[in-house]
Amino acid sequence: MEIERKFLIKELPKNLETYPHHHITQAYLCTEPVIRIRQKDDKYILTYKSAGLLSREEIEMPLTKDSFEHLLKKADGIVIEKERYCIPLEKELTIELDIFERDLKGLILAEIEFKDEETALSYQMEDWFAKDVTMDSAYHNSTMSKGNIPPFQ
Fold first, then answer.
1. How many CB atoms are closer than 10 A to CB 106?
2. CA-CA distance, 42 to 4, in Å (whole number)?
3. Coil, helix or strand for 152?
4. d(CA 7, CA 129)
5. Phi, psi angle pair for 8, to nearest 5°
6. Measured CA angle at 50 (ends 57, 53), to 5 deg
C-alpha cells in the first residue's frame, strides 16, 4: 500500500545539491489501471498502481534494461524525466522532491510517503511548500503523461 501526499512548492530548499538524488525516466503503458515502467539510475522497474488519491495499492517488479527499452517504445503518452532529491525529515520521513524536465520542465513537486493514513493526515506541510495537491489527480504522473499539464502554482 502506498500512502502519499503531494505538494507544489514555492521555493527550492537551500543546499539542494547536498542531498542524494536520482535521475528518473518513466512511461505509462496504461493509465487505468496504472502500469508504469521506470528507470531509476541503473535500476528498471515495472509498477502496477490501483486507483486512489491518498492511498492506493502499489506492486513493483524488476525489469531488465532490454525489457525496459522494449516497453518504452510502447509508451502511451509522453515519457517523463525528472531529477529526484531525497530530503530527510523527522520521524523517518523523506521528502522526494521531483524537478521535472522535458515536456514538464518548470514543474516541481514534493511527495512524502507515510506508514499510515493517520500520520499522513496529521502532517503539517513545510514552510517552503506552496499548496497541497494530494487530492487533485491532475498531479499524478500518469495523468500528466497524457499531456495534461496542471498549473505549476
1. 10
2. 25
3. coil
4. 6
5. -80, 155
6. 85
For the chain, percent of residues with pLDDT exceeding 70: 99
The amino acid at 55:
S
Cell numbers for 71, please give them: 516497453
Domain spans, the chain: 2-144
Measured distance CA(93)–CA(113) in Å, rounded: 7
Q: Which has the closest alpha carbon to 128: 95, 150, 100?
A: 95
Class of domain 2-144: mainly beta
> Strand runs (DSSP E) across the chain, as ranges?
2-9, 21-31, 34-40, 43-49, 55-56, 58-62, 80-88, 94-100, 108-113, 129-132
The tens digit of pLDDT for each residue in 51-68 reads 999 999 999 999 999 999
Q: What angle do CA 114, 120, 125 make, to 5 degrees?
A: 110
* pLDDT surpassing 80 at residue 153: no
